[in-house]
Structure formats: C-alpha cells, structure tokens
Amino acid sequence: MTKPSAHVAVIGAGPAGLAAAEILAAAGLRVTVIERMPSPARKLLIAGRGGLNLTHSEPLERFLARYAPAERRLDAAIRDFSPQALRDWCEGLGQPTFVGSSGRVFPHAFKASPLLRAWLARLDGLGVTLRTRTRWTGWDAQGAPTLAGEGGQETLRADATVLALGGASWPRLGSDGSWVPVLEADGIPVQVLRPANAGFTASWSPVFAERFAGAPLKRIALHLGPETVRGEAVITRDGIEGGAVYALSRPIREAIEARGEALMHLDLRPDLDAAALARRLAGARPKESRATVLRKAAGLSPPAAGLLREASRDLPTEPAALAGLIKAVPLRLTGLQPIERAISTAGGVAFAALDERFMLRARPGTFLAGEMLDWEAPTGGYLLQASFASGRAAAAGLLGWLAER
C-alpha cells in the first residue's frame, strides 16, 4: 500500500498533468505541480475560446482508431477513462456536457474557464501545491528533478515524478518542446516533433490569394489516396487549413515528407453524384454566364468556384467533364505550416522507451503523459481525451510502482 507521506512531483500543469495530480492526491500522496508559466492550463483556456471540445460521442472502437498508429498503446488508458467517464467527471465538477450535431462533446458553458476553476478548486481541496514560473531542467546525480525558478536553481526531492510538458505547438502558452534535448541527452529516444492539425501550403495565384484568403469552403469532401473526409476548410493566403484538412494531417504530412508534395482532390459537391451534377449543368440556360452556371446549377459558393478556376484556367464546357472536375478538384500541397502555428504536435517520446505503466525504462519512478508521447489525433475531442486519459494512466502506474517498493 502506498505510504501517505510519499511526495510526488507533476511537471506541467496542462490537462495531462492536472489529471495525474488529481489521481495522486486523491490517493493520499503529497503532490507538487510545477508549471513554468504564470498560471496553469493556458492552452486549455485558449482552446476553449471557440467552444471547448472535450471528447467525441462516436462508438469507442471507431474513436480509438483515430489514434493510429499509436492506438494500441493508448487503448487501455482510454478504455479506463472513456469519453463517457470524462463526461461524468465534468458533471462531478458541476459542468454538465452536451453532444453537438457533429457528435462532438462540449460543456454547457461552452468554454474552459468554469471547468478549470472548478477543477483547480478540487485540487486545492485535495492539498495539491501549485508552483508557477518554475521550469524543469532535468535531474541531478541522484535522479531528483532540478528546477529553475524566480529564486534560482534548486532540487526538488520527490519519491516519483510525472512529466507532462506538452508538445511544441503554441509555445507562447508553455509547450515549447524545450524538454527534448534534456531527454535525448539522457539517452531517451524522442521522435522529431512535427506540426499536427496544422495548415498546408499551396501555390495560389496572387489574384486568388488576395480575393479568397480567409474564405471558408463548406460541405466539401477531401480525398487523399484511400482516405476520404467530409467537413469544412478555410483558404489561407498561402494554402489551406481547417477541420477536414486536420483530419488528413498525418497522411498529407507523410506524403510531403516522402515525395515533396501531396496531391489531394476536393469534392465541392459531395452531396451529389457526378451524374446528377452533370444533369443540373446540362439544364442551365444557354445564355447564362459560366459564373452563373457554377453558382446556380452547380451550387458553388464564390470561394469554391474560385478554387475550381484556380485548378483549371479553361473549364470544360461539356457538362459531364465539368461535373467530374467539380467532384475532384486537384490540389497540390507542398509544405507544412510551422509547428508554432499548429494546434497539436506529432512525434515525442517513443513508446518503446516506456513500460506498460507509462514509466521510463531508463528512469524508474519517472512517468510520462500527454503530448510528450509519440501519438497524434485529429481535432474533434480526441486530443483532450487522450491527454486526460494518459495523465490518469501515468498516475495509476506511479501508484502501482510505489506500492511495490
């Protein structure tokens, strides 16, 4: 049984770190949370400005598949703290949730601040100590965490540690990836941190970029090889981003890394098959302009019609050929937006460096959670779900390890 006097350190006060701290404190341990920023969970608060997407309501097996190829390593953690368990946990904090029309799950307050306030109050009631403006710098010769804070360098004596330092996206909010060289110097394998859920670059003409930058493409479908995703996207000055693009982030990135480009096809009318669309185009009035035909018969918005013309300067006049182009507009993506502009991070500490309890094999007593680990997932609630779940799983692993000592 874990000794009540045991002291554990949690490095990082994002969702994964706070989730670990809650489990550890509830088990009776003394918990100190270390955060380098002036306040905790800054990325969570920013993510909640447009509606805090906590998790997703789709069937669990389909949900878990979103984490491929890391699905197997996250499976047990997410099953132990499932999307429904996360909703129940929110309810326990006085923050009930609802399922949106897309299947995504949000708190009724629709933002992060009420949930975070209630959570921090619970942690305070459990005796968790939060230290801000303090950076983890590694370990001393005895394996204790070393810190750099406003009072200078120091060593934190702890019986075990959870590292939940995040990835490298949105560095101004705290997750800057500065932990990578520390772990690599210790011989711990780290896969290169790369942008995930980020935009990609395309070579727009100046006229198209000037006119349509910031314009949405609604109710479209994206095709990349065998992958198809329906959703929305946004044209940027130098490329494209948005939910449907993020869902294909990994295969797009891998294609660019392997071949220097990714050739996608956009279906601008996925609700119509090619034959039905061709019939509509054939029924257009003879004297109607091409712009009018695209708007009325094809039902294309100005950004969609602009994208069609960007892909083919001379549009086909034959209805079937034009319908075929509308159903498969080629889009060549040649680069990634920088990781600082990404929503999340791919890469991180290789799962081979961890045991099944999320403990570093090379550093017994040190457990990892959240985006530090080598997994990625699309937006839609999957990022937060895995962060919460892995934080709790790392805490459970730590408790088991202490109990064996």
Calculate Rg over CA atoms.
Answer: 24 Å
Write down the CATH class of the largest domain: Alpha Beta
Give the end-to-end Cα distance, rounded to a whole number of Å.
9 Å
Low-confidence stretches: none
- β content, as a range? 15-25%
- Overall shape: it is elongated
Looking at the overall shape, the CATH architecture of the largest domain is: 3-Layer(bba) Sandwich
Integer average pLDDT: 95
Structural category: alpha+beta
At CATH level 3, the topology of the largest domain is FAD/NAD(P)-binding domain
Overall structural domain count: 2
Q: Order of strands across the widest beta sheet?
A: 17-16-13-14-15-12-18
Number of separate strands:
20
Main beta-sheet strand count, sense and barrel state: 7 strands, antiparallel
The helix fraction, in percent, is 25-40%
Number of helices: 15
CATH homologous superfamily descriptor of the largest domain: FAD/NAD(P)-binding domain
